[in-house]
Amino acid sequence: MHKEVLELYTQMQLAGMKPNKFTFPLVLKACASIADLQQGREIHECIRKSGVELDPFVSSAIIAMYVKCGCLLCARQLFDRMTQRDVVSWNAMIAGYAQNGNFDETLKLFDEMQMAGLKPSVITRNAIIAGYSYNGQFDKALEFFRQMQQAGGKPNLETWNAMITCYAQNGCCVDALKVFQQLQLAGLKPDSFTFASILPVIANLNVLQHGKQFHSYIIKTGFHSDVFVANALLDMYAKCGSITIAQQMFDKMSQRDVVTWNAIIAGYAQNGRYDETLKFFIRMQLEGVKPDSFTVASFLPACSHIAALQQGKEIHGFIVRNGFDSNVFVANALVDMYSKCGSLRDAHYVFDCIPKKTVVSWNAIIAGYGMHGYGEDALRLLFQLEQEAVKPNDVTFIAVLTACSHAGLVDEGWEQFDRMSQIHGIIPRVEHYTCIVDLLGRAGHLDEANIFIEKMPVEPDAGVWGTLLGACRIHRNIELGERVAGHIFELDTKDAGYYVLLSNIYAAASRWAEAAKVRTMMTDRGVKKMPGCSWIELKHKIHAFLMGDQCHPQSEKIYSALDVLIKQIKTAGYVPDTSFVLYHVEEQEKQHMLYSHSEKLAIAFGLINTCPGSPIQITKNLRVCGDCHTAAKFISNIARREIIVRDLYRFHHFKDGLCSCKDYW
User: 84, exposed or middle or buried, with CB in 10 Å at 0-12, 13-18, 19+?
Assistant: First the structure.
């Protein structure tokens, strides 16, 4: 429609007809709608030559065109030359500054407008509400809205939309839904912006049924074909865990933009479908859609999860070539990716290159050092953060406390837990209490951890008790483990991990009847154990292994190499620890079961498929087996290789017969 208007304007000129002050605003509006700045400039030049530039109606249209095309300087220059300014021109400039983040100038113009004797319209006030919201001044936005209503101003649809966005951006999702209801009670019909603003609220609340009801309403009102709304719907389904419906919506969309692709890529990543995330990222480019900074920031966590370092490095190259490395969100995602892919040196290099580090940047690098077992370095980074006047948040202290736990820094962890509330005014959440339980539990202070839980000011959840149960497994405390498991099963009967921990505690003590009883309980309650899986990236392909796996094309070579390795490390002093075999079978059978653990299979595969002397990196979805941990130390010494293992909780760097964790894990 807008292009047709511009074509008619061209035909009008070719026909020798001169446009007038009534024609120009129409074609300028068309330029603004499609953000065609070049043609807008050309039309502005024609207006100058025709002598109607300072006509209030025309000049307001020029200003609106420049604002919507992102050329705020040109708009302001014309605005300052105007001898007569109407409400439309003031509104255009005020909205322009608000949309471009210059809120100080927005408020200044708003005051000047009133001093000039003009009464702000509802459009002006909407721009102020939006400006307050975008600048994080939530309370002022609400106060301004109330003043507007008290002064007799009648909110229009854009006002209600601005208030929905305001509440949503400040995490007040229930209030945002109430505003939507007020909009309807006022007799107004939602538009595409309304739906695109309310659907993220549904996603944040994770109320899928409400989302489906909104979807039906959107279809009835005819907005389902609007790409803006369709993208929001796709994102809502993905965030509510219905990735299959999100995929179906994606497939049916006749029009897709980069936001559509970002939503499906982020959706698969958020739902743990990392292989699909990688596939969609490749497919996006094959279909000619260029990724933006949001795409790569959504894609990098997939590389992080599967420890696909080579793919992550290639994406880093893409980021640099396209100028996204200056984007702090992308840089933060890179720090996280390199940390989780085992390359802490690259993570710190990216971190050092961030010119304006946010608290998220600091959190990412602190968590990285903690994950690799460098607790003292994590504490030094916290000190640097405080020296640079960056305010730590609750996530910062989860990272710091976790780092202290992995490094066995009990006193330092307690100190930071106290500083969090006493110095920084951060009220501990259940996650912080869980970290302290982990800190005490790993150090063997099980009774102290139990007392700490009982005295917690917040109700302990299954995660808190589960952390203590894990410590009971490490330190083989059956009596406390049974009591703790009782608390857990009262709260959570579906998480297989807790049943497995209790079963393992019994099995390690050769109490096979109790172990079998726990497994029977799992079956009766329909709880399924996740199988242990280890994987390794080689030439951009992920090779995954399960215990006793013989499905890999190189299985024969892998087991042959493993037989040789086992003999070599036995000669060097390795003794299989069959206490990690949780089945009541003969000792010889237990040893054979240990030899085919997924970690050992992945290491053997890496040894026969990589160059001598090069590091081998594997990832496991569960805690690394204690026997595999011992075997990896021997293998690293015999094979003269660094072996990097990332398990569910941390990294282990095996080199020259030693592990970076110093056997504290």
Answer: exposed
